[in-house]
């Protein structure tokens, strides 16, 4: 194949020579759909076939290359017996064994008394070295074809190394020249290679296994730059001019004075940042990031009061009906003595009431609406929506945020909330299109959760403790990693644990996990919230969101299998009322040093931001809670921990440029990392 146009890189793999329907199917199973995916599918290792090894120096189990003379061909006439070729050099003999190979083909590639080059995995059988079904066989005139360091790729069923190598070489050896998209000073000051040179090296040297090599770092920088470019462009589209909101914060101040507690300095700081945005002549698009129990909801409600005082409507969306209902009840309590009309809307709202709410929203009679995703359906029309708030926003990506910003109109500010602490580098790459506020303090009256660890062999000691908790009307969470028992993983099963606990405490136990449908989940959670059950056996679906003020004990099985950030989120499900929260981490014996360290750190700290940083150091950035499951991990090569300097460089670089994303030189880059479609999302 001769690549003479850049666009061919974005064509289907079926355009390549030798790639038919079946091979296309196999490649797509490996998520290699476009030719560009071959470029980005870097080798994970390599096979060194470059050295000729004499037969007295062979190592069993290794892939090695030999130069031998063919001495004898043995083709048995009995079915199912292998064909054997006897070869030798001056140091010894070796058997080359084939199963299910045609005699004519073998006679052709193994001519008697001729020298051949063979490469394959060395075995030993019946006191003889052997190679079964060698990878490569050729005559000595073509030995350079074999004598190479060959990259190894992660492949799927139906594609062997030789076949994939042939496909990749078509692309790598014919890469087009592309216009440099970075400024000269960025290339020179950071010793970046060209894009083409980087790709070639990554596929033909060990650079792909070294994430700090010059070639790898160039690819990382391009990927990070593209991601931040997308967020920067999204920010430009969202931060449109709007009408100023003129308010005196009278209602907000009145509410604060009537609260039974004082706001923390961190809450006051964030509230001030929001108010500045609300008053500005550009749309607010801000995220409040706060640790579990830091008081984000109160800050958002005070912001809402300011907007309503300005004569505009507010909408507050939560991911579940239970959580939305909790926010609704809190809002009614906070706004109790104020002339603010609050309503609740969800998928379960009866038709007659729904029609009434929709009519009153459009007329402006409702000041404040709280609900689920139903709030942003086409039929929901606001008269004058001034602020939209989204809780647990980690479920939304860039495209969803863009759509949300469009829904509210040009004068609507948007405030997002997240209870998942995220390290600084990750925040930059995920939320670079937003302004970020952090609530880092917790209310003074909130008690620190007591965190204990216990080996699973002492689990029986817990039953009497749980019994006492139930007796004094407290509730208990019991968390397991899996829904049902796995023969491959030595984890506890939520269903199995439910059966065990239910026998000990009949009719007092509920079970919730990800395999339940939405209605079933909500029913179980409501039963627990209403104290109809005392113990809730669960998988990690209870990590975030709902407040259970009567729950003061959480037991986490196989705690060593969870990351720090995830354990912290789970731990935050208890101690949210006025009772002392207790978290017990159960673990099996024989913990790794890493697991012991994680448990120790968790017992010593309740700072979610600190724990998120430590988690990333210990486990890598892809395992941070809320990352993979939310679709946040959109990097193939970049690692915020390893490549922190490149993230900061890309951020500074983009801020220093007045970039027009529509410039032709960026087209190739955006398409390469699948950002072109997202970046063209219409927000206006």
Task: Walk me through this protein's architecture.
The chain is α/β, with parallel strands linked by helices and 684 residues long. The chain folds into five domains: 101 residues, no CATH class; 98 residues, OB fold (Dihydrolipoamide Acetyltransferase, E2P), CATH 2.40.50.140; 65 residues, no CATH class; 190 residues, Rossmann fold; 156 residues, P-loop containing nucleotide triphosphate hydrolases (Rossmann fold), CATH 3.40.50.300. Helices cover 37% and strands 18% of the residues. It contains 24 helices and 21 strands. The strands form four sheets. A seven-stranded parallel β-sheet has the order 11-12-10-13-14-9-15, sandwiched between helices. It has a six-stranded parallel β-sheet with strand order 16-21-20-17-19-18, sandwiched between helices. The chain has a five-stranded mixed barrel with strand order 2-3-4-6-5. Helix 8 packs across helix 22, helix 9 runs antiparallel to helix 11 and helix 10 packs parallel to helix 11. The longest helix has 25 residues.
């Amino acid at each position: 194949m001769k690549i003479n146009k850049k666009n061919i890189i974005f064509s289907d793999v079926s355009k390549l020579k030798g790639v038919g329907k079946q091979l296309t199917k196999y490649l797509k199973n490996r998520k290699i759909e476009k030719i560009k995916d071959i470029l980005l599918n870097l080798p994970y290792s390599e096979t060194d076939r470059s050295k000729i090894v004499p037969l007295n120096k062979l190592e069993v189990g290794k892939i090695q290359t030999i130069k031998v003379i063919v001495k004898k061909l043995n083709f048995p006439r009995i079915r199912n017996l292998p064909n054997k070729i006897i070869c030798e050099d001056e140091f010894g003999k070796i058997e080359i064994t084939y199963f299910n190979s045609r005699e004519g083909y073998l006679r052709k590639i193994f001519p008697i008394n001729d020298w051949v080059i063979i490469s394959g995995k060395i075995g030993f059988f019946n006191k003889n070295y052997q190679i079964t079904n060698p990878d490569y066989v050729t005559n000595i005139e073509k030995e350079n074809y074999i004598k190479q360091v060959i990259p190894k790729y992660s492949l799927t069923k139906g594609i062997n190394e030789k076949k994939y190598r042939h496909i990749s070489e078509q692309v790598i050896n014919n890469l087009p020249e592309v216009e440099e998209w970075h400024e000269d000073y960025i290339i020179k000051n950071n010793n970046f290679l060209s894009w083409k040179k980087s790709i070639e090296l990554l596929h033909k040297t060990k650079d792909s296994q070294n994430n700090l090599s010059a070639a790898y770092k160039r690819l990382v920088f391009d990927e990070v730059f593209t991601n931040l470019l997308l967020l920067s462009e999204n920010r430009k589209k969202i931060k449109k001019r709007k009408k100023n909101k003129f308010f005196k914060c009278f209602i907000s101040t009145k509410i604060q004075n009537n609260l039974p507690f004082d706001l923390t300095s961190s809450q006051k700081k964030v509230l001030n940042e929001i108010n500045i945005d609300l008053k500005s002549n550009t749309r607010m698009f801000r995220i409040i990031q706060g640790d579990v129990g830091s008081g984000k909801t109160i800050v958002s409600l005070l912001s809402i009061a300011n907007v309503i005082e300005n004569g505009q409507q507010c909408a507050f969306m939560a991911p579940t009906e239970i959580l939305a209902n909790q926010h609704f009840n809190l809002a009614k309590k906070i706004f109790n003595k104020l002339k603010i009309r609050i309503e609740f809307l969800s998928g379960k709202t009866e038709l007659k009431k729904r029609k009434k709410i929709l009519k009153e929203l459009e007329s402006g009679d409702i000041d404040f609406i709280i609900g689920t995703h139903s709030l942003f359906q086409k039929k929901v029309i606001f008269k004058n929506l001034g602020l939209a708030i989204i809780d647990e926003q980690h479920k939304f990506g860039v495209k969803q945020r863009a759509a949300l910003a469009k829904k509210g109109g040009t004068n609507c500010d948007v405030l997002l909330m997240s209870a998942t602490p995220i390290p600084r580098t990750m925040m930059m790459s995920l939320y670079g299109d937003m302004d970020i506020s952090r609530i880092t303090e917790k209310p003074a009256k909130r008690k620190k959760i007591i965190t204990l660890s216990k080996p699973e062999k002492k689990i029986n000691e817990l039953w009497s403790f749980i019994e006492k908790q139930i007796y004094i009307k407290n509730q208990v969470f019991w968390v397991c990693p899996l829904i049902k028992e796995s023969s491959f993983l030595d984890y506890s099963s939520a269903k199995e644990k439910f059966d065990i606990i239910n026998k000990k405490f009949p009719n007092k136990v509920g079970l919730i996990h990800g395999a339940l449908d939405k209605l079933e989940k909500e029913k179980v959670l409501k039963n627990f919230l209403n104290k109809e059950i005392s113990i809730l056996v669960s998988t990690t679906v209870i990590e975030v969101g709902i407040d259970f003020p009567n729950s003061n004990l959480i037991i986490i099985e196989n705690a060593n299998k969870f990351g720090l950030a995830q354990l912290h989120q789970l731990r935050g499900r208890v101690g949210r009322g006025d009772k002392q929260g207790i978290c017990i981490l159960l673990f099996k014996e024989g913990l790794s040093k890493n697991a012991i360290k994680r448990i120790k750190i968790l017992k010593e700290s309740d700072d979610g931001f600190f724990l998120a940083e430590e988690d990333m150091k210990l486990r890598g950035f892809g395992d941070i809670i809320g990352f993979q499951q939310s679709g946040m991990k959109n990097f193939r090569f970049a690692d915020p921990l390893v490549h922190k300097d490149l993230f900061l460089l890309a951020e500074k670089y983009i801020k220093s440029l007045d970039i027009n994303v529509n410039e032709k030189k960026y087209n190739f880059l955006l398409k390469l990392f699948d950002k072109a479609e997202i970046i063209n999302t219409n927000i206006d």
